[in-house]
Structures are given as C-alpha cells and as structure tokens.
Automatic annotation (TrEMBL), chain A:
Lineage, highest ranks first: Bacteria, Bacillati, Bacillota, Bacilli, Bacillales
Primary subcellular site in the record, as a coarse category: membrane
Bilayer topology: Multi-pass membrane protein
Lineage top rank: taxon: Bacteria
UniProt name for this protein: Inner membrane ABC transporter permease protein yjfF
Claim: ATP-binding is one of the keywords in the record: no
Automatic annotation (TrEMBL), chain B:
Location of this chain's protein in the cell: Cell membrane
Name of the molecule in the record: Inner-membrane translocator
Bilayer topology term: Multi-pass membrane protein
Keyword Cell membrane belongs to the record: yes
Main location: membrane
Domain of life: Bacteria
Keyword vocabulary terms for this entry: Cell membrane, Membrane, Transmembrane, Transmembrane helix
Classification of source organism: Bacteria, Bacillati, Bacillota, Bacilli, Bacillales
Organism this protein belongs to: Thermobacillus xylanilyticus
Coiled-coil ranges per UniProt: none
Pfam family of the protein (one): BPD_transp_2
C-alpha cells in the first residue's frame, strides 16, 4: 500500500499517462518520443515559472506577478541587446538579478507589513507590466547570434528525437528545486511555514527570511523563465505571457500541491505542466476543436483536483468550518 | 471616540481623490468644463461617471463578497459571458430593434450570470473551498465559455434598444450612471436597512461563531456570490452594449483586479468583517479619475499600470498596522520602493 501523502501525486502522474495513451490510440503519429519532447520544448518556460510558484504556494502564499515579470524580462533583454547593444553575457545576469530583487522586495513587503501576498503581488504584477510599456509599447525583435543559436540549437537524443537547450535549463531547474525542497533547511522551513505559520514562528524557524527567499526564488524562476521565453520568441513585448500566472497556478494545483500550503511536490508540478501540454497537443491533433477548449478543460481539471484536495484535507482535519 | 479623522476609512480615498482633482485644476482647468449640448451633458467629469459605472457596479458586488472574507476572481469572465449571451440572443432574432427581444436577451444574460454565481457560491459555501481558488476555476474556464458562446468571433449587433443600455442618455446623463446608482442604492438599502449587512459582517468576522449564533451563513454566502455575479452581469451588458458587440477575449479583462483595488482603496479590509459601500464607490471613481487624468495630462496611458501599482501599495501600507507603527516609532523598515511614495502622504 502506498503512503497516503503520495496519492494526489500518483493521481496526477496516472492522469498524464492516461491522457497520453488516449491521444496515442486516437491519433496516428501521436505516440512518439518527439511528441513527448515537444511537450517539454513548448512548455519549458512555463515549467520554470511553475516551479517557482510551487515554492510560493507551498509556503502558503501566492505570486500573481510571474507573467508580468516574464514579460519585463523579455522587454529588458530585447531593449538592452537590440537597442543598447549590450552583450548577452551581461544582460542575462542583469535580468536575473532584477527578477530576484523584484521578488525579494515583494516578500519583504509581505513579511514586514503583514499585507496579504495576493494584493502585494497584484501590485507587483501591475508594476512589472507597466514598466514593460515604459521601455516601449512596441515589439522589439532580437537578432543577436547568441539568441538565435539558443533558439535553433537542437540536442540530438538516441531514438531520433531532439530537445532544445531551454529544456535542459528547465530540467536543471526542476532538479535544483527537488534538491532545495527535500534536502535543504530552506525547503523544510518552507513546508513548515505553509503547514502552520504560527507554529513555525514558535519553533524558532526563520520565517521572515524564508518567506523573502521564497518570493526571491519565484522572482528568479520568473526571470529565468523570461530568458528562456526570449529564446523561444526572439522578441520582447509588453503583451507577452498575459495570464501566465493562471497557467502556473493551475499546473501547481493539478500537480497535487495543496493551495493552503504545506503539502505538495515539485515533481507534481512537472506533471501538471505536462498535462496542460498534452491537452494542447490533443486539441492541435484533433484539428476541429478551437483553442478555447484548452481553457475549459484546464478549468474542469482544476475543479476536479480542488475537489480531490478537499476530500483529502477533510479526512485529515475535521476543523474546517463554514 | 478614539478614531481620529485621518483614521476614518473614507478619509484616505477622498484625500487622494481631492488631490487628483486639485492636480487637474492646476494643470488642466478644462477638466472641469461641462458643456450642455442637444440635451446631453458633456465633459471629463461626465466621462468619468460614464466609463466608471461598470467598474463601480462590479466593485459593489465585490465589496459584499470581500466582507464575508471571500473574493470573486471570476467577475471578469462573467462580464464577458453576460455580454456574449446577450449579443448572441439578439443577433439570432428576426428584428433586432424589437424591445421584447432585447428584454429577453438581457434577462437571459442576467440569469446565466446568476446561475454561475450560484456555482461559485456552492463551491465556497457548499464544498467549503477557499474562495480565491473556487472562483479561480470559473475565471479560467469562463473565458473559454464566453468564446464558446461567441464561437471565437466578435458578435456585432445593430439593436438600438440594446445600445441604449451602455450608450443611451436619460435626463441629460448617461443611462449607465443611473444603473450604477440603482445598484448602489439597492445594495446600501439591503445591507443597512435590513439585518443582512450585519450578518455579512458577522460571517466575515468569524464564520464558526456566526453559524453557532444562528446565522444561516450558507444561504447568505450563496446570496452574496449570486449578487456579485449579477453585478458582473449588469456590467457586462453595459460594456458590450456600449460598443454594440461582444468580445469573449477582451471584455472585462482585468476588471476583477480593478474592482478589488476599488474595494481595498475604499477601506474594506481584505480580511473581511467590515465593509463600506460608499468607500467602494469613492474607490471606483478614484481609479477612473486616475485613468482619465493620465490621459488628459498627456502621459502615455501605458504608465497607468505603474501608477496603479503604487496606489495599491500606498493604500495597503496605510492600512497596515505594522507600517503605521514603524512610521510613528521610527523603526527602520525595509528599503522598499514604495516607502518613500507613502511617506509623502503620511
């Protein structure tokens, strides 16, 4: 018998396999390694952003600013490279630092002034999106050889499939996040704060510092996601990734992480992102269905998983009221 | 009373509002000009009332939801669904100008909105799911539903009676202003002249205690979410009839955030338990004035978002007890960018 805490995770993985198999049975050419690799290639940036979101949600918070930070990163990179002529070696560390600083500042406001994460990150979302337009209201394209190389380079894998460099970055971020979550003090503190913040304070855990680190990590993931998204789009634009925060939250929830915090796995988020990718792929293969079905199916899945979570939390604690 | 005048909930929104008007008076005196032409009043102030009314209506519904310690993220999608529903019904009719057809369309759109509000309410009150998550479902799926209704296209209608809702004039003022006033008066009457307002605040303060005290919190929560959805539905009708078309993608985009902002600026605490409908109205007007002022001053309108970000932070920081303490005691706080912005007011 499996440990009960793994059940939501197993449901997610099972659902992914089921959907992939269903697609394979229905459409010829679906069951191939390359289709699976394309899921990763097309969703590398979402995966990176969702990993950061996982930590925030594990700590009991939420980060609505991620989509805007991705857009700001693309904008900042594009304007510095194309218009100011900076080398990528200077631009990429700079945009990552901006993301980290942005997240850390939101975390500091949340912690020091006891304002809900929802409203602080909402302000952050407005600010980052607005800063994009301050830079420029138009699209800025990037034609720097480094970026085009990153966009086009294919890493051949045995079996005739290939992946992009972005996928390697995304997988490294997932590996780093798994390590952070389960093998470091920072990870355990994050789980503890999400489980019960007052208890964490009474236990003497560094709640404030951990919270700020969590938001800084999410800021880092968002800006790294932005860098990867720049490789993917080769442009900076203020309207890039509108609504990405919802996709990231949906991926985390479908991945089995409890939205009240304290319980969940980074690997779950990984499969949450893949499930969203499979839905999109199936809709593309179907051909006759329009893209808005994606949103409805994701909404439905959100509903099912939230209900599933509800059943689990109701069984473990009887103190929930209203 | 220990509550000093600058601590009253309505003081800060009105102060910022006054500041904005003063700014306009100095830099753009024509801001206050109101012309009378063909029996209609024209001018920036009238525009603010006109364009601000959908936001005000959504924000009034949101106020009651937030007062129960909830939140409704789905209002933007509901705005799109309601407009799409009405436009679809009208575009299917034989005579688009028939009043009965328009009334059917409006009724249908509002019924769909209320039904979706019931769905939100059932998730929150029935299944006991956190409101932010429960309404997130409809926020994500709702855009898809709106697209499904319009088949992914922008439905255009030519109906004159329908166009009246969002672009008509009644007794020199835009008709939408009367709608907003009616919704406000209804909400104010329901919450202040009946015990409903007190029940809502009680649920927001302590759901368990209020249930033990005999308040039927479930039915009240259901009613509140349905009312909020109805408000969003009305706002959707105004928005879509103003341009005589329904756009499933862009109608009501981000209105949930503006509405929450209006509520918070108005002094309603996000942790529930107390609310001010007048404050919300002031908040909605403040946001619309801000947007109009930015247009008038010739600042690129895209900067609005940056200004909004600082307004949100400033208002939240003023409301945060720990921030006030750090101001009065002079304890160094984090070097956040908003710090300087706020201390100018404080």
């Amino acid at each position: 018998m499996v440990d009960r805490k793994y059940v939501p995770l197993l449901v997610t993985i099972g659902l992914f396999i089921l959907m992939f198999l269903a697609g394979s049975l229905r459409y010829p050419g679906f069951f191939s390694l390359q289709v699976f690799m394309n899921l990763l290639i097309d969703n590398a940036f979402l995966l990176i952003v969702a990993v950061g979101m996982t930590f925030v949600i594990l700590s009991g918070g939420i980060d609505l600013s991620v989509g805007s930070v991705v857009a700001l990163t693309t904008m900042l990179s594009a304007s510095l490279i194309t218009e100011a002529g900076w080398p990528p070696a200077a631009v990429i560390p700079l945009v990552l630092a901006v993301g980290i600083l942005f997240g850390w500042m939101m975390g500091a406001i949340i912690h020091y002034f006891q304002i809900q994460p929802f409203i602080v990150t909402l302000a952050g979302m407005f600010l980052a999106r607005g800063l994009c337009y301050v830079i420029s209201i138009n699209t800025i394209t990037i034609s720097h050889p480094f970026y085009t190389h990153m966009a086009l380079a294919k890493i051949r894998l045995p079996g005739g499939s290939f992946i992009s460099i972005s996928v390697v970055i995304a997988l490294l971020v997932v590996a780093l996040a798994v390590y952070l979550a389960h093998y470091t003090r920072f990870g355990r503190n994050t789980y503890a704060i999400g489980g019960h913040e007052s208890s964490a304070v009474l236990m003497g855990l560094p709640v404030g510092r951990t919270k700020m680190l969590v938001y800084a990590f999410s800021g880092f993931c968002s800006s790294l996601g932005g860098v990867v998204f720049t490789f993917y789009m080769l442009s900076g634009y203020g309207l890039h990734t509108v609504g990405l925060e919802l996709d990231a939250i949906a991926a985390v929830v479908i991945g089995g992480t409890l939205l009240t915090g304290g319980s969940g796995y980074v690997i779950g988020t990984f499969f949450g992102v893949l499930i969203q990718g499979v839905i999109q792929t199936i809709i593309t293969f179907e051909g006759t269905l329009s893209s808005w079905w994606t949103k409805m199916v994701i909404g439905l899945l959100l509903f099912l998983f939230i209900l599933l979570q509800r059943v689990f939390t109701a069984r473990s604690t009887r103190s929930q009221s209203v | 009373m220990s509550v000093r005048w600058w601590n009253k909930p309505l003081f800060w929104p009105l102060a910022v509002f006054g500041l904005l008007l003063l700014l306009n008076l100095i830099f753009k005196p024509e801001f206050f000009a109101i012309r009378y032409q063909n029996g209609h009043l024209y001018g920036s102030l009238i525009d603010i009332l006109n364009f601000g009314s959908p936001l005000a209506i959504v924000a009034i519904g949101m106020t009651l939801v937030i007062a129960t310690r909830g939140i409704d993220l789905s209002v933007g999608s509901l705005v799109a669904i309601s407009g799409a529903m009405a436009c679809l019904t009208i575009s299917r009719g034989d005579d688009q100008h028939a009043l009965s057809l328009v009334l059917t369309a409006v009724l249908l759109a509002l019924l769909v909105s209320i039904a979706l509000g019931l769905w939100n309410g059932l998730l929150v009150a029935g299944a006991g799911i956190q409101p932010i998550i429960a309404t997130l479902i409809l926020m994500v799926a709702g855009r898809g539903i709106a697209q499904l209704i319009t088949s992914g296209q922008i439905i255009t209608v030519t109906s004159k009676p329908y166009n009246f809702i969002g672009a008509g004039w009644l007794m020199t003022l835009p008709f939408s202003v009367y709608l907003a006033a009616a919704v406000f008066l209804f909400a104010a009457w329901m919450t202040r002249k009946t015990s409903l307002g007190m029940f809502i605040e009680a649920i927001g303060c302590n759901p368990t205690a209020s249930r033990l005290a005999g308040i039927r919190s479930r039915s009240i929560l259901l009613a509140v979410y349905m009312f909020c959805a109805l408000c969003a539905g009305i706002a959707g009708l105004i928005t879509s009839s103003n341009v005589s078309s329904a756009d499933g993608n862009n109608a009501g985009l981000w209105i949930e955030l503006d509405a929450i902002l209006a509520v918070v600026i108005g002094g309603t605490s996000l942790s529930g338990g107390r609310f001010s409908l007048t404050g919300t109205l002031a908040g909605a007007l403040l946001i619309q004035t801000l947007t109009t002022t930015i247009y008038m001053l010739g600042v690129p309108p895209e900067i609005t978002l940056v200004v909004k970000a600082f307004v949100v932070l400033a208002v939240c920081l003023i409301q945060s007890p720990s921030f006030r303490r750090s101001l009065t005691r002079g304890i160094p706080w984090s070097p956040a960018a908003s710090g300087q912005e706020v201390s100018r007011h404080g």
